[in-house]
Amino acid sequence: xxxxxIIHKVGNKINQESLILSQEEYQPDEGMTELLEDFFLKAFxxxxxxxxxxxxxxxxxxxxxxxxxxxxxxxxxKYESENIAxxxxxxxxxxxxxxxxxxxxxxxxxxxxxVKIDSIGIFKMESKIPFLKISPQGExxxxxxxxxxxxxxxxxxxxxxNNFKESxxxxxxxxxxxxxxxxxxxxxFLKVKQRDDEYFHTQETLSVYKxxxxxxxxxxxxxxxxxQAEFLNKSIEFFKEKEQFDYDEFTKEVLQDENVIESFxxxxxxxxxEMQVSISEDFAINESAVKKQSRGFKSIIKLDKNFSIYxxxxxKMIEQGQDENxxxxxxxxxxxx
Length: 337
Description:
It is a single chain. By secondary structure, the chain is α+β, with helices and mostly antiparallel strands. It is built from 9 helices and 18 strands. The chain has helices at 30-41, 62-72, 77-90, 184-190, 198-220, 225-241, 247-255, 258-275, 287-294, and strands at residues 2-10, 19-20, 50-52, 100-107, 111-112, 115-116, 119-125, 129-137, 140-148, 156-161, 170-175, 192-194, 244-246, 282-284, 300-303, 307-310, 318-323, 326-331. The strands form 7 sheets. The chain has a 6-stranded antiparallel sheet with strand order 2-1-4-7-10-11, with helices on both faces. A two-stranded antiparallel sheet has the order 3-12. It has a two-stranded antiparallel ribbon with strand order 5-6. Strand 1 and strand 2 (19-20) form a beta hairpin. The chain starts with a strand and ends in a 6-residue tail after the last strand.
């Protein structure tokens, strides 16, 4: 439940715009509280979570430091909200970053299994949309054009949950208006990285596997597009059917060939070293991450500019060959739909 709210106006420092700090908290009525809660919270649909980090010590991360003080002592809410707004103002180094209203909220969590987790929301609204104000003037109506914040999409936001403090808290983050600066919100302001959790390991395993199948496999082995499609389909089926990921089980069931398995292991190690990540080989599969990643696992064989074959199932139902007319694919099926 939204229990505290303050609004600051953060301009672009490099464009010599102002920072305007509220002198007191905003006290919404019940209807406005429900509207704001719905607007702020509905933007966070993904289970992907992040955590604060610092190149030295966590306490040197300005936003981490401020939210820690608020969680420790709620009377510091207004003071630390000003520090957060000043930090956001100071890191504006791109003239394309838009000014906007900064909403800083405190949410009291609902108790679940005897545990209540409060959270802090930081939301920046930059986009203004036009709307018409219609007011009665005698026996007619007057129409006036104005600009305001639309309730369809949150520009930038994060929710910091009061748990896992020692590793940088758990955060949900969105940035739907990057203004030509993709680092401004995630890196320059919040300084966050993805949490090392089930979502992360599911996402990264599927990412490195897809890259191996589409890029590395054809270089080392005699592989057709139909073979690649089968590998991709089998991997998604594995992740959808299983609750737990086991590396050995996955490679034996999906890749099967020992030489291919060895190649994938080497590719995964190189990927981890290059990306500076460590991907677990035993974890609970996150359904949300599978659903998101599977959108990019479309097994399509594109043939010149004439045809595209969508492969969803059995590799044995596709044959490839060549005759006097050129290369061809032969497709077998039981029922036309």
